[in-house]
Design brief:
Order of helices and strands: EEEEEHEEEEEEEEEEEEEEEHEEEEEEE
Distance between the termini: 21 Å
Bound molecules: alpha-D-galactopyranose
Structural class: mainly beta
Largest sheet: 9 strands, antiparallel
Number of strands: 27
Strand content: 35-45%
Strand order of the largest sheet: 11-12-13-14-27-23-22-17-20
Length: 350
């Protein structure tokens, strides 16, 4: 089905510990190109056409591996075992309390100190042009229980979709939440305040000052969180709303309108200058919309670009933050014999 997609592999350097990193280039029949490396399973570049047909890179990152090995906020990364936050960096499963690293104030963010974004995955080019990445996270790694076997497959289809299929199994009860943390700027540079966004969600999960959900599901209607109708990202981002202030902008989880685990439209982003339009489809119940609030101009990325606040947006499909401590949220528990299986598609419709 993806027969026209070509995949090639190349060396991309070595980690500080000396592990070899490969980069794979996936190219579809229209010349849309995704480069993905085995370090963190990261999307390094994603080139799609603008309204004139000119190809341009729509994700933030670095030109070489070195940048990724240094301090950076999960650019393009596969995030796990537990994407987003676990409150007080602890949770209880079957009566046993597990402590995970506190790497975000009192909380655990994006899997801990050395999450899936910082490990080298095993890469394999598939005959259909897809890229398979596998990683075995050992029992106790970053404090999480169970040997977790994870497989993530990236496909670049001829419909200009970057499709990500996540699968995992465990040998002990554990919690899991995997996502991709690409930073999109459909214009290729500048800020994302003019990107026009729709999110297919009537509710979101309000947070406390540590960005941990309070546990309630709040209606978006009448708030700056209402993206049920296409609205510019910048229209209400500086409003006096309490939740906006806590997030320093948008850094919240939306509760997607859906029946169950079906692949459904989560969000649509339209950038007027370039004419690019990206849709996000997912089987997940939630999406974290993040407006690059912590970017502060200290990171110099591709071509020396200075990444300032709001220079990109993330749409991280996921189970809700802190689900291991929120019995009323959809469960993030995976048990032996069960299979974690989710799909997210970033589709460039224009
Ligand atoms: C996620 C979080 C943000 C921030 C970024 C990385 O989107 O929700 O708070 O941590 O990752 O900087």
């Amino acid at each position: 089905m993806n027969a026209a997609t070509k995949i090639t592999a190349a060396d991309f350097g070595k980690t500080k510990e000396g592990a070899a990193v490969q980069i794979f280039t996936l190219t579809n029949k229209s010349g849309v190109e995704a480069r993905i490396m085995t370090y963190g399973g990261r999307v390094v570049s994603l080139k799609t056409p603008d309204k004139t047909g000119a190809m341009g890179d729509v994700v933030l990152g670095f030109d070489s591996l070195d940048g990724y090995l240094g301090d950076n906020p999960y650019f393009g990364a596969l995030v796990g075992r537990y994407a987003n936050r676990i409150g007080h960096a602890q949770f209880t499963l079957n009566g046993v309390q597990y402590k995970v690293p506190k790497n975000d104030g009192d909380n655990c963010l994006h899997g801990g100190l050395r999450g899936f974004d910082k490990v080298v995955w095993t890469g394999k080019a598939l005959s259909d042009g897809g890229l398979q990445l596998t990683y075995l996270s050992k029992d106790g790694e970053e404090g999480f229980p169970g040997n977790l076997k994870t497989t993530v497959v990236y496909h670049l289809t001829d419909a200009n979709e970057l499709k990500i299929d996540y699968e995992a199994t465990t040998d002990k009860d554990t919690v899991i939440n995997l996502t991709n943390h690409s930073y999109f700027n459909l214009k290729g540079s500048g800020d994302i305040l003019d990107h026009v966004l729709t999110i297919n969600a009537s509710r979101f999960t309000p947070v406390d000052s540590g960005l941990i959900p309070t546990g309630t599901l709040q209606m978006v209607a009448g708030t700056p969180f209402d993206f049920t109708k296409a609205t510019a990202v910048g229209a209400r981002i500086s409003s006096a709303d309490e939740q906006i202030k806590l997030g320093r902008g948008y850094d919240h989880n939306w509760v997607l309108n859906k029946k169950g685990g079906e692949l459904s439209l989560a969000a649509r982003v339209e950038e007027p200058t370039s004419g690019r339009v990206m849709e996000v489809w997912t089987t997940e119940p939630g999406v974290q919309f993040y407006t690059g609030n912590f970017l502060d101009g200290t990171i110099h990325g591709k071509g020396g670009q200075v990444y300032k606040q709001r220079s990109a947006l993330c749409l991280e499909t996921q189970h809700f933050p802190d689900s291991p401590n929120k019995p009323n949220f959809p469960s993030a528990v995976l048990k032996p014999g069960g299979k974690y299986k989710t799909t997210t598609v970033y589709k460039f419709v224009k």
